[in-house]
Amino acid sequence: MRIKYENNKVQRYFGSYDLMAKKVGMEITRAIKKHMDRLNAVESFQSFLTLGLGKPHMLSGNLAGCYAVSVSGNMRLILKPDSDDHSAGALKQCKVVMVKGLGDYHGGKIDWFIP
Fold first, then answer.
1. Nearest to residue 8, comparing CAs of 102, 101, 113?
2. Tell me, what DSSP letter sits at residue 5?
3. What are phi and psi of 84, to 5 degrees?
4. What are the beta bridge partners of residue 27?
5. 55 in helix, strand or coil?
6. In DSSP terms, which residues pair with 57 in a beta bridge?
7. Please, which residues bridge with residue 75 across strands?
8. pLDDT tens, 78-96?
9. What sign for the dihedral angle of Cα 48, 14, 72, 64?
């Protein structure tokens, strides 16, 4: 799968796990790296969802169209598949995903750790 990033700041952190570890700690960075390795290894976004690791789930509200993957506590890796259709068939064809960042959307607002 091809991975894009929401902006240059997100790309900088996800491109350097040393930099990310300074921001969020080594344990969280390891968990994120595992998810990113899985994204790189699968053919489609549906394949990633089927793995079920990190309990991926669709979001609503301000993050409608995005999916969250549990990293630690309330921290979630926020991903947006490059597809307007979120049916299993469409996501099976989806070969591109955008990493929006690492955040906590609980409590009605989004607190970004890596925006």
1. 101
2. E
3. -80, -25
4. none
5. coil
6. 68
7. 72
8. 999 998 888 888 899 999 9
9. negative
Q: Which segments of 3-102 does DSSP mark as H helices, in order? A: 8-15, 17-24, 26-41, 45-51, 88-93
- Structure tokens belonging to residue 103: 């955040």
Residue 73 token pair? 């506590």
Per-residue tokens: 63: 């993050």
Spatial neighbors of 77 by CB under 8 A, at least 6 apart, are 32, 35, 54, 68, 69, 71, 99, 102
Residues present in the chain in total = 115
Task: Provide the CA 38 distance to its chain's centre, in angstroms.
Answer: 11
**Who contacts 3 (Cβ-Cβ below 8 Å, separation ≥6)?**
36, 39, 40, 96, 97, 98, 99
CA–CA distance from 45 to each of 17, 39, 93 (Å)? Answer: 23, 8, 8
Give CA–CA dist 81/89, Å, rounded: 13
Contact present, 78 and 65 (Cβ < 8 Å)? no
Kindly report the pTM of this predicted structure.
0.90
Percentage of the chain exceeding pLDDT 70:
100
